[in-house]
Design goal:
- It is a single chain.
- This protein is of the alpha+beta class and 136 residues long.
- The protein has two helices and seven strands; from the N terminus they run H-E-E-E-E-E-H-E-E.
- The strands form two sheets. Strands 4-3-6-7 form a four-stranded antiparallel β-sheet, with no helix packed on it. Strands 1-2-5 form a three-stranded antiparallel β-sheet, with no helix packed on it.
- Strand 6 and strand 7 form a beta hairpin.
Length: 136
Amino acid sequence: MSSERKTELFKLSSVILAIGVLLIGIAAIGFYLELKKSMERGGGVQEPFWARCVEDAIIITAREDLKDVVVSARGEELCRFDSIGRGSEEVCYINTSILNETRVFVVKAGDLKKAVVCYQPVKPVPLGTPVPVGGD
């Protein structure tokens, strides 16, 4: 290989290396800006509790000590917990007849209220079974 060819390859590899360093720098700046933006949004502030519905139960996860927690549907109290300790969970089982009436529940702890929706699971249909169309 001639020295002229080696010089060309050296220049080409230097350019490729410089482009790579530039791209890494741009990615690092983008990562920093995204991190800064997410910290400004809330700084990781979390609500005192999280509530979710799993089949026929509402599970309440306490991120801090909670007092007087109430689960209700359409104004009717379904469950009441005097306290739920930080890091603990409580379960409120929902009667099937209530689930047939409504799928939206309210979990209240102190002044904070959260709406919880229980989605009805879709039943599997065996292959080849005719499926009605149009809500029939």
